[in-house]
Amino acid sequence: IVRAGFGLECVSAGELRRAKEVAEGHTPLLFTPNMAPLDEYALAFDAGAEVTVDGPHTLQAAPELFRGTTLALRLDPGRGLGHHEKVRTAGAHAKFGQPIEAIDEFCVAAEALNIRVIGLHAHVGSGIFDASAWAQIGGALASLRERFEHLRWIDLGGGLGVQKIDNESTAR
């Protein structure tokens, strides 16, 4: 993957350490944890990764760690998707991302710490077979681009469903 020119996404300190072992110095790293210990965010900054936070609570827990940094924000567009309720990671009772309707709370916290938001990210679930889901997610995130003058990228998240294959018909 690294030799092909792709970057690496990490969600933990262990993954960051492994990525640094295999990555050549120019390999982009993206750190997208969920409620990680604060020392893991510090490790990600030290590794040169682009760091994603889930909302203002992370910034408020360690303002000096995040002051003046460049970050991405994971957002919850308000509805989880996926083939089963246990894999839906957005919407009511989800733990991933700042609810879009509460974006002002994040913006106030980020502005107070002179944070530049360069990316918006969403992950709404896994096993999604409806291709229109990404248009919906993209539209929700793109609608916020005017709020972030330094925005460089939007990540629609993963979760693309893989069709189950009947082993009987493929064994021939």
Topology diagram in text:
Blueprint: E1 8-10, H1 13-22, E2 29-31, H2 38-46, E3 50-53, H3 56-61, H4 63-66, E4 70-76, E5 98-99, H5 103-112, E6 116-121, H6 132-142, E7 153-155, H7 167-170
Report on this structure.
The chain is α/β, with parallel strands linked by helices. It is 31% helix and 16% strand. The protein is built from 7 helices and 7 strands, in the order βαβαβααββαβαβα. The chain has helices at 13-22, 38-46, 56-61, 63-66, 103-112, 132-142, 167-170, and strands spanning 8-10, 29-31, 50-53, 70-76, 98-99, 116-121, 153-155. Strands 1, 2, 3, 4, 5, 6 and 7 form a 7-stranded parallel sheet that branches. Helix 1 links the parallel strand 1 and strand 2 (29-31). The protein is globular. The protein starts with 7 loop residues before the first strand and ends with a helix. The mean pLDDT is 85.
Largest sheet: 7 strands, parallel
Instruction: Give the topology string: H per helix, E per strand.
Output: EHEHEHHEEHEHEH
Proportion of residues in β-strands: 15-25%
Q: What is the number of strand segments?
A: 7
Give the CA-CA distance, first to last residue.
Answer: 32 Å
Mean of residue pLDDT? 85
Structural class: alpha/beta
Query: Which percent range fits the helix content?
Result: 25-40%
* Net shape: globular
User: Given the structure, what is the number of helices?
Assistant: 7
The radius of gyration over CA amounts to 17 Å
Poorly predicted segments: none
Keyword list:
single chain; 172 residues; alpha/beta; seven-stranded parallel β-sheet; 7 helices; 31% helix; 16% strand
